[in-house]
Design goal:
141 residues, alpha/beta, 5-stranded mixed beta sheet, 37% helix, elongated
């Protein structure tokens, strides 16, 4: 009886190992991308975005052009107060803005009402500008 189980078990283990090796060394090619300024070279691609025409309302309803914020690195975070992962990442974004105030500018673009965002901000300290994205803001003429 033992001999009857050894052969299928050995075939199963060899198949699993072969599948893992095939996946690891032929199909799966991980890419590592660094956002670290220390590792940036001129051969690395960069993204130039023209956002000069984008104007969104702040929490008080006043229009704000994205071009008013000038920093070497602009981080735009799309979020909503009802989004659990968004809520969890906000403390890290606050720390990032505190750590690099001269070189990084964060903008929080929220897909919710100004009232909901204001309520959320009153309970959670956020040190970067928050703007409201409405459905009308996303339409292209």
């Amino acid at each position: 009886m033992k001999n009857n189980l050894i052969l299928p078990l050995a075939v199963a283990l060899v198949s699993i190992a072969a599948g893992f090796l095939l996946f690891r060394y032929t199909l799966y090619q991980p890419q590592f991308v660094s956002a670290s300024p220390a590792r940036t070279t001129q051969t690395e691609p960069s993204i130039d975005i023209d956002y000069g025409d984008i104007v969104l309302n702040n929490l008080q309803g006043q229009p704000q052009a994205l071009t008013q914020w000038q920093a070497p690195v602009m981080v735009i975070n799309f979020w909503a107060p009802w989004c659990a992962p968004c809520r969890r990442e906000i403390p890290a974004l606050v720390d990032l803005q505190n750590s690099y105030p001269e070189s990084v500018q964060l903008l929080g673009l929220s897909f919710d009402s100004a009232e909901n965002v204001i309520d959320f901000k009153n309970d959670n300290p956020i040190n970067y500008p928050l703007l409201i994205v409405r459905h009308e803001s996303t339409l292209i003429n």
